[in-house]
Amino acid sequence: MDETTRTTRRYEVISGEAEFRALQPEWDALWLKAQGYCYQSFAFCWLAWKHVSKPHGRRLKCIVCREDGKLVLVWPLETVRRSLWVYLVPLGPQGGDFTSMLIEADAVAEARVAGAWDMARRRCRADFIHLPYVRERLELHRLVMRERRILFSEAHNASAARLRGQGSWDAYCQTLGTLFGKRPGGFAKKLSREGTVAVRTLDPAEEAETASIIEWMFRCKRAWSERVGKRSVWLDLPEFERFLGKLIYSGEVPSMARLIVVTLDEAPVAAIIASVGNPWASAIFAGFDPHYGKSCPGLIAVEQCVKWAFDSGYDLDFGVGTEDFKAYWSRGEASTAWTVQTINSIWGLAAVRARRMTRDLIGRVKNLRQSGAAAPHAQEPGAAAAPAMRSSRETGVAHPE
Prior knowledge:
This is GNAT family N-acetyltransferase. The chain is of the alpha+beta class and about 400 residues long. It has helices spanning about 15-20, 25-35, 40-55, 110-125, 140-145, 170-175, 185-190, 205-230, 240-250, 295-310, 325-330, 345-380, 385-400, and strands spanning about 10-15, 60-65, 70-80, 85-90, 100-105, 130-135, 150-160, 195-200, 255-265, 265-275, 280-290, 315-320, 335-345.
């Protein structure tokens, strides 16, 4: 049902910052009731808009649904212009968060989601819709995968640790095996041979120290990414670094994250940022000193993050990825999330066809050049002319692209 056939259910695309800010009280109430994830909260989205999206010239496209005037769905989106085309993407820093709508699960939830998806397609004026990490179990995934013009789709492994109701921390750890030959606490014991190991969760209001540790984490993360050949655009964005700090403490919205630091002789060797839970917390960002890599300080930080979530009464979402520690702490429980991009306009379809034609043309030119370069060798003394000519024709037919 859409806004024209069901008078009590109305959808709207919020594009103004003032209207977006005014949603906070209702949005907060829905987030608590629907047990939303951190990236679905108003605080997260407001900070992402203010410190990442708006400075980069993106346009706000937040879809909301009301029934009898009551807010029942929020889907924060934004548009990004790339050359001559417009992409619709989830509002946020694009650092690995899932894509989903904030909605309370009830008998008509699927109808609301379908209406919001229809609004995204029709009213946001995008040539492409790019949705990273849509959980396979969601109605949104089913709707997107039914689209006729899917440009690409990619599956990702996702892990989460269910920690609530596990009794004591020691009892929970007894249900785990070993990670790289170590049980919980083993990596900290190994690092303690180098000096005094301590763990601290920073007070959110300690802004200066928080900013200093986050800057250090980014330096470590950049060094790691260069070493393993995995470079992400957001690693070089000062806006994303600032956003993480504001997520911990901003003064204008509630604190949505905590910074856990592992130190060796009072110097940081690893740190991790995790969101508060509702009841799901999320591991957001981590970094470690590669100098102590053999002692695995990063795994100590992860363990301390899991323990913090356990003690706080949260479950912990590790996001996508196939890292061993994610499978270990989630006890092998995994799900699938999909990154999907659809073509949403004739202009977008024209762009795809033009790219394909250009790629095909370049491929054919390369093949012709390779064939032309091979022909003189066929005429050298002792070479048979007929096989060389046949080889040239076969190359042109077998590799047209």
